[in-house]
Design a protein that fits this description.
Hypothetical Protein Aq_1857, Chain: A, globular
Length: 107
């Protein structure tokens, strides 16, 4: 379903280790908004929801809600660092177009 690059895995592990709260996983979600119609969201969650799809990547657990799952099918998430900043980059084969900032898309 979702692929995490080694850089993304490393970044998520650092974020999880940096929190004092117990973490059930990293939620990846799609919501309406952004300049292209849909936007990606990521948050550390203390509990999973009953209907979540749970994906294990070693020490990292991803949580995906049932509405977001079809739009995230085949997505590759990377973490990039450059002179202009750092952040997660989504490569989504389901997107018919993406905005220049890479944080939103249309299906």
């Amino acid at each position: 379903m979702i692929n995490l690059t080694p850089n993304a895995l490393s970044a998520v592990e650092k974020f999880i280790k940096g929190t004092t709260d117990p973490i059930a996983g990293l939620r990846i979600a799609i919501s309406g908004g952004g300049c292209s119609g849909f936007q990606y969201g990521m948050s550390l969650e203390q509990a999973k929801q009953e209907d979540d799809t749970v994906l294990e990547f070693g020490a990292v657990t991803l949580l995906v809600d049932p509405l977001s799952a079809p739009l995230l099918e085949g997505v590759t998430i990377d973490f990039v660092e450059s002179l202009s900043g750092s952040g997660f980059k989504f490569e989504n084969p389901n997107a018919s177009s993406s905005c220049a900032c890479g944080s939103s898309f249309s299906a």
